[in-house]
Amino acid sequence: MSSDRSDLISAPAQAQADVQRCTPNLPGFTCGLDATLRVVSGKWKPLILYFVAQDGPTRYGELRRAIRDVSDKVLIQQLKELEADGLVKRTDYKEVPPRVDYSLTPLGQSLAEALVPLCTWGTEHMAEVSRVFAERATWTRPGRQPTG
Amino acid sequence: MSSDRSDLISAPAQAQADVQRCTPNLPGFTCGLDATLRVVSGKWKPLILYFVAQDGPTRYGELRRAIRDVSDKVLIQQLKELEADGLVKRTDYKEVPPRVDYSLTPLGQSLAEALVPLCTWGTEHMAEVSRVFAERATWTRPGRQPTG
DNA sequence: TTGGGTACTTACCAAAAGGTGCATACTTGT
DNA sequence: ACAAGTATGCACCTTTTGGTAAGTACCCAA
Fold first, then answer.
1. What is the tens place of the pLDDT at every residue in A62-96?
2. Which domains does chain A have, with CATH numbers?
3. Residue B13, helix vs strand vs coil
4. pLDDT tens for residues A6-49?
5. Do B21 and A119 touch (CB under 8 A)?
6. Pairing relation of β-strands A88-92 and A58-59?
7. What is the dihedral of CA A66, A71, A74, A80, to 10 degrees?
8. CB nearest B53 (choices: A15, A62, A80)
9. Chain B neighbours among A 84-123 (CB < 8 Å)?
10. Where would I find the beta strands (DSSP E) of A16-120?
11. Mean pLDDT, contiguous 10-residue spans, chain B (148 residues)
């Protein structure tokens, strides 16, 4: 009846032990994962981290063209947030046709590294994921499965 | 001038090599990370994956109470999506006061494992992240730094 | 002078995501 | 009989997020 389930369960195995480390109950975040996701969530942020991690200091225009489909407003916005979050560093060369570039801070680099397993997971299971997404496209949004 | 930057850069170091593996240009996703994030993004999804990974088969009500602050509508919704995406398995015992529980599929378990580095990152850098978020709360939303 | 490129900003909008509250169908406890 | 618990569904609304289009200040090439 009580909401604390102090009983341990028969979960996966080692996976469980690993996940355990993501201990909840912390400052403003429920857990480390929560903190991380708040910082990387944004439609283009991972991609930005991506390109900058690969290309090193990248000019605004380069990012803009590279990411394609992103609008100025949003790209700038996300860059500002990443900067505010201490993940990227903005360098303004104060030149007269403006010149600015963005690079990863050490914090940003460490995040980029932490993202690698997710990239890998996504890559490895891309087939399954996209298959599922294809089906999902059928019922566009809510909960209408082709089950019945 | 051309939008393809075939030139390689002087980026971080090993981090770069690692991130390289997140090769873009794939089916519907820009890269593995993209695929992954589409599947885990949802305000409570990581937390759900969390609890279920730790506790094994978890009843709806348990999750509801454990996650706290989530509404029925959204929790159900996210569970459905996770199920549709093949990450969790819903088991309906067809009993009369309804009994249902959710567990991770192998796919879900592998994702949970891939999330571990992010948890770790978040935990390790929580201080920096929350400090930044605290300041951000000052200018509530747009781009007004206390710089000037 | 017109046009293009640089790096943004701003006002206005549409869509997505999340939240609230009520309803259901049935059982158990009081 | 009535409240409470079980796992949802549904209508409606607010917040968040992303997008569009236009503007700014300045330079260079045609």
1. 999 998 889 999 999 999 999 999 999 999 999 98
2. 24-138 (1.10.10.10)
3. coil
4. 222 233 444 455 554 455 545 567 788 888 988 999 999 998 99
5. yes
6. unpaired
7. 50
8. A15
9. 84-86, 104, 107, 109-123
10. 58-59, 88-92, 100-104
11. 31 49 60 87 91 94 92 96 96 94 97 93 92 70 32
Q: What is the pLDDT of residue A53?
A: 94
DSSP string for A122-135: HHHTHHHHHHHHHH
Contact B144, A84 (CB under 8 A): no
Contacts of B92 (CB under 8 A, 6+ apart): B98, B99, B100
Mean pLDDT for the stretch of residues A115-134: 90
**CA separation for the pair B10, A95 (Å, rounded):** 23
Mean pLDDT of A111-135: 90
- Mark the nucleotides of strand D covered by protein, meaning any atom under 7 Å from a CB: 5-11, 17-23, 25-28
How far apart, in whole angstroms, are the C-alpha atoms of residue B15 and residue A101? 20
Closest partner residue to B36 among A9, A114, A121, by Cβ? Answer: A121
